[in-house]
Amino acid sequence: MTGAKKELSSEQHTLYSEMIPEHKRLINKEKNLFEVTPKHKSYRVYIGRFFELKKGLHSVFNELREAKEHDVLEFMIDSGGGFVNEGMQFYNIMQEKFNGRTVAYLDNKGYSMGAMLFSMADKRVAYPYSDFMYHNYAGGAVGKGGEIKARLEHTSKKLEKFFHDVIVQQGFLSEEEYQQMLVGQDYWMGTKELCQRGIATHVICQGQELTAKEYLKHLKKEKKIKKELKKEAQKAVKTTKKKTK
Questions:
Q1: CATH architecture of structural domain 5-244
Q2: What dihedral do alpha carbons 153, 154, 156, 161 form, nearest 10°?
Q3: Sequence ranges of the domains in the chain
Q4: Record's Gene3D superfamilies (predicted)?
């Protein structure tokens, strides 16, 4: 990033914003063709627990709603989860102001609503030791019997559709896995599985940003090298034993 940064904090999250100047990248020297990234604002939100108890996220969302056509939104997620309502508010602002221009970094964990927020982004970047977990929501209601029943049925229908649209429609869990989640199954995943399922689109590894496919190839290559080194070590031990006899 370049230019003066602006900081705005809530109880659990911190928003930084910065104006990025126009950038040109040469893509064809012979034809003198450039890819132009117009001047825009970059918003970066550090996500903690979804648990705003005072005034909520009014200041953060008010700032984000000032976004213009080319502005981008990044999430740095290290969250154990929290209130689903706050996560849905982020979903709304992503749809309204940043559709197609959101990036989420799983730094370091994303559980429950943290996992959902990561799943909502257009580009989803993990690290080799990122940690992730899907599970069903928890909640309750108070009031007269009929009121409790009506509220729980309404909330359940709404949230199950929301979770289904984010998780199943994108192919991150199968329909069968999702139904198991609704009755209590937790799905814990590391970076390798996140890439295999398409939840993570990229991984930052050894100073490089790899696509999920490239990262899986990297892991396969690493495994092969370790296997060959192990064989060589075992062979060296056997040779040493023969010499000492």
A1: Alpha-Beta Complex (3.90)
A2: 140
A3: 5-244
A4: 2-enoyl-CoA Hydratase, Chain A, domain 1 (3.90.226.10)
